[in-house]
Specification:
This protein is mainly β. It is built from two helices and six strands. β3 and β4 (about 70-75) form a beta hairpin.
Length: about 110
Amino acid sequence: MGFRTQAEEDALETMSLDEYLIENKEATFMMRASGDSMRGEGIFRGDLLIVDRSRSPHDGNIVIAVHDGAFRMARFDSRIGGAGPVRADLAVGSELSIEAVVTAVIRKLV
């Protein structure tokens, strides 16, 4: 029997990441980020994204959109054409639909 380490003393209570990160199980799924278009937002290639299809996007949210048949990620701004992501290559008027709101980003460091 030994003394507890400082890390053990500072540890949080056991918690479920599902309960912490997911509000609506039926509408939530994970995606892996690809490409570098969201580096400025702190989202890097390989990060896991938790996205919720039941949420309505609000200005400033990062959303998953389907643009001309491909998934794209962008910051939402309702001022652009009434509703649409902020990215020049995601022109409102082409085939564009907002599919989900990104609610969390998970990055594995090692």
